[in-house]
Amino acid sequence: MAIQLINDQSGVPDNVQGTAATIGVYDGVHLGHCQLLSQLREKAKEQGLATAVITFDQHPTRVTSPENAPKLLTSFSQKMELFESQGIDYAYIIKFDKKRSMTPAAEFFHSVFVKGVKAKAIIVGEDFQFGHNREGDVAFLKQEGAKEGIEVHGLHLFRNSSLPDIVVSSTAIRLKLADGDMQVAAEMLGRRFELEGTVVEGDQRGRQIGFPTANLSIPEEMLLPRDGVYACWYKRPDGSRHMAAVNIGRRPTFQTNDSKSILEAHLIDFDGELYGELGEIEFVKYLRQEREFDGVDALISQLKSDVQASQSILRAD
Question: Would the pTM of this model clear 0.90, i.e. be above it?
Answer without folding.
Answer: yes
